[in-house]
Design a protein that fits this description.
Layout lengths: L4 E2 L2 E5 L7 H14 L8 E6 L5 H14 L3 E7 L2 H10 L4 E5 L8 E7 L8 H11 L16 E3 L3 H10 L12 E5 L8 H8 L3 E5 L18 H10 L3 E5 L6 E4 L5 E2 L1 H14 L7 E5 L4 H9 L3 E5 L3 H11 L3 E3 L5 E3 L8 H15 L3 H4 L8 E7 L9 H14 L3 E7 L5 E8 L2 H19 L1
Parallel strand pairs: 3-4, 3-5, 4-7, 8-9, 8-10, 13-14
Antiparallel strand pairs: 1-2, 2-6, 5-6, 10-11, 11-12, 15-16, 17-19, 18-19
């Protein structure tokens, strides 16, 4: 069992354990030692989002890495997928992103990418944890072998060019009015610039970060303002990124929200038609709607499901040769281009479909009718409420009531102290009743 790492790196409230400067220092030391192999000069690239606590954690990580002899390249505010891309492009041994993704500014996190641009395995994260809890003093670099740190100029332009090249050179977004909401986060400069360079008429939102307003009433988890803006300016499409821009949610010309399941369906159908799918299906998590699975079956495609977390989606894609995967929440992984979820690149693929089909976004992106799906979050303070007999019995009863016409997914969140209770099925009233019953029992057990 890992103590600090969750489904997406280390995460918690800033300046409280485990998201303290001391922990960041030790994690930097440990990760640096784990990835120092061979006699060459070792390097790590560090990006961050726009949270106030990013300054503290960035400085502590730099101290940790340089103390074990690693040179540090600092990117400043950059999307998570840009850090993954630049880890490979700059030939570094390790990539680090300081972000808590869609969480509010009070939280922060540290996630790692290996030299291949992919997130670390559970085993490597456990090795880093073991190092953190050991005495690393004897392993520190000598005074002549300490690392250096420098800011990398032009990193934003490198990522913008990379994103643009995922579209055919002749593809132009001219004639499309696009509202982009960057959640006052990591993509506040690069996303609007990339869209503008591709020819779109761009209206930007969420591009004035102040350290506190990341994800606040904006971005992929709060799309009301984006929907209103699309109506106001009569835009063709709205694009909402989250704080670190590894997920995307679309709003059509009517202001209707289009989630990650629909976007995966759009890409899957388009890539199948152009013979670009590397496997006869896509990869999603247990949270994806049953309607997506049925739609893919109609196309002759399969849906492989994994645990929640884009890292598990990517692992299954790599192991089984898929090149399209993602999550309902908007993590879309297109492995022809990227090693992790990339909100901007996924949005560009959707825009390419809109241009190719020359139809409104509401028609292009509505591929299936979702079956009724309800999710309730139950907060708990500690313990293992899912291990209690009453909860197990309630879950078994819910599964029996749904039968073969629905699904039930109960899990503990990997990033917050929440039990997520999700059910879906053709009978909306039954689904609602099952979720409420189970959530009530879990709440009692967690009290």
């Amino acid at each position: 069992m890992r103590k600090f790492f969750g489904t997406d790196g280390i995460r918690g409230q800033a300046n409280k354990y485990p998201m303290t400067a001391e922990m960041a220092l030790k994690v930097g030391m440990a990760a640096g030692l784990v990835f120092k192999n061979g006699g060459h000069r070792h390097r790590v690239v560090i990006g961050k989002d726009t949270r106030l606590s990013g300054y503290m954690l960035e400085t502590a990580l730099v101290a940790g890495f340089t103390s074990v002899g690693m040179d540090v390249f600092l990117l400043g505010p950059m999307p998570t997928p840009a850090v993954a891309m630049l880890t490979r492009s700059l030939r570094t041994d390790l990539g680090v992103m300081i972000s808590a993704s869609h969480n509010p500014f009070q939280d922060n996190g540290i996630k790692f990418f290996g030299p291949d641009g992919f997130k670390l395995s559970d085993e490597i994260e456990k090795t880093i944890e073991d190092m953190v809890e050991s005495d690393m003093t004897p392993l520190l670099a000598g005074t002549r072998e300490l690392g250096r740190a420098k800011r990398i100029d032009g990193a934003q332009q490198r990522y913008i060019e990379f994103a643009k090249r995922t579209l055919p050179r002749e593809m132009s977004l001219e004639g499309l009015r696009v509202v982009i909401d960057c959640a006052n986060g990591a993509a506040y400069k690069v996303a609007p610039e990339a869209l503008w360079e591709l020819g779109a008429d761009v209206i930007s939102m969420g591009v004035s970060p102040d350290g506190y307003n990341i994800n606040k009433d904006c971005g992929s988890t709060s799309t009301d303002a984006l929907s209103r803006k699309v109506h106001e300016v009569r835009a063709d499409i709205g694009i909402a990124l989250d704080g670190d821009a590894d997920r995307v949610i679309i709003v059509d010309e009517n202001g209707t929200v289009i989630d990650g399941d629909q976007l995966m369906a759009v890409v899957a159908q388009s890539w199948q038609a152009h013979d670009r799918l590397s496997a006869p299906g896509i990869v999603a998590t247990v949270m994806s709607n049953l309607g997506l699975e049925r739609y893919l079956q109609e196309l002759g495609l399969g849906l492989a499901r994994t645990k929640v977390g884009d890292r598990y989606v990517v692992e299954h894609m790599r192991a089984n040769g898929y090149n399209v995967g993602g999550e309902q929440s908007g993590h879309i992984v297109l492995s022809d281009f990227a090693t992790t979820g990339d909100g901007l690149i996924a949005a560009l693929q959707v825009l390419a479909c809109v241009k190719d089909q020359d139809r409104p976004v509401s028609e292009v992106c509505k591929r299936f009718e979702p079956v009724p799906q309800i999710l309730k979050n139950v907060r708990y303070k500690g313990g293992l409420p899912l291990e209690q007999d009453l909860v197990k019995s309630a879950i078994e009863d819910g599964e029996a009531r749904l039968g073969t016409s629905g699904r039930l997914v109960i899990r503990a969140s990997g990033t917050e102290p929440l039990i997520r209770v999700m059910a879906e099925g053709d009978d909306a009233d039954l689904v609602k009743q099952v979720v409420n019953d189970i959530a009530g029992v879990v709440a009692s057990a967690a009290a």
